[in-house]
Amino acid sequence: MIKGLAITPPIIGRISIGRIVEKNGKRLPEKDDQFTLTTQVQNRDGWLLHPLDEQLRQENATNNGKLRTIPVRMLFNSPELNLRAEYTLFDRQTGRPLCVGNGDSCRRYTPQGIQHLPCPSPDACELARTGHCKPYGRLHVIVNDEEDIGTFIFRTTGFNSIRTLAARLAYYQAVSGDLLACLPLQLKLRGKSTTQSHRSAIYYVDLTLRDNSTLAEALQQAKTLNQQRLEMGFQQQALDHAAQAGFNNATFEFSEEEIPELLEEFYPNSDDDDSTTNHSTNPSNINAKTANGVLKKKLGQRLQAQSTSPN
Length: 311
Description:
The chain has 311 residues and is α+β, with helices and mostly antiparallel strands. The protein has one domain. It is 31% helix and 32% strand. The chain contains eight helices and twelve strands. Strands 1, 2, 3, 4, 5, 6, 7, 8, 9, 10, 11 and 12 form a twelve-stranded mixed β-sheet that branches. A hairpin with a 2-residue loop joins strand 7 and strand 8. The longest helix is centred in the last third of the chain and has 21 residues. The radius of gyration is 20 Å and the shape is globular.
């Protein structure tokens, strides 16, 4: 195996809660109140919709065609393998990760190479004082009970979604007796208002049991599915071990192809609150060159201000 190459779950599509709109001749990310499932291919008009997007919308006709729940299963029993979340600081010119930490320890590029250092969290970190270190979560799910190991990925930099998803995954693993991958679950879009959102609704992603399913029924379904998998030779524990080894094969989990998307997630074209940050995880059509141009302009002003200030 090539060292330094992150072996992550195969991605066959994206889940977002945002969309792209054209304003004054520019294509900009805008928050939305529904899910969108896309392929990993985009054209001049944006990301191509995945066939499951239309199928699920037809099944959710009661919401006026808006997709606000998605039936999913987890690929792994371990919550930490399904949801990858860390504090992440990206290079302000290239979009590549400079420092990734969990609030306790971090891996950081330094002149001496990659070092393992303490991570005091962004609020107390000198390197993160510019505000560009943010939580970055990636949730991998199997949509609509497809019998495959290919996943849809939901990316977010919102505390609300990361905190809620992490809690749900841990709780469902515990109550199911480590049968998380067998539980019939769904992603559900929720809204709430806060003083910081100026009383307007902000949206985040939750993970719940499927509609019209009790906990007792879901647990029984998980036991039945687990028994069926054992009889057919499905090795869930081996799958989790293989996934963990793949994640550990590289220092950072990001590929070159993700850089335009990461730039859009961490450095949007306008100052956004937590709600828009969640929605900005739907990467726009802005290509790497355009995104870098916007990024360099903003950060050049910051760097110039810092260079003229006393040390």
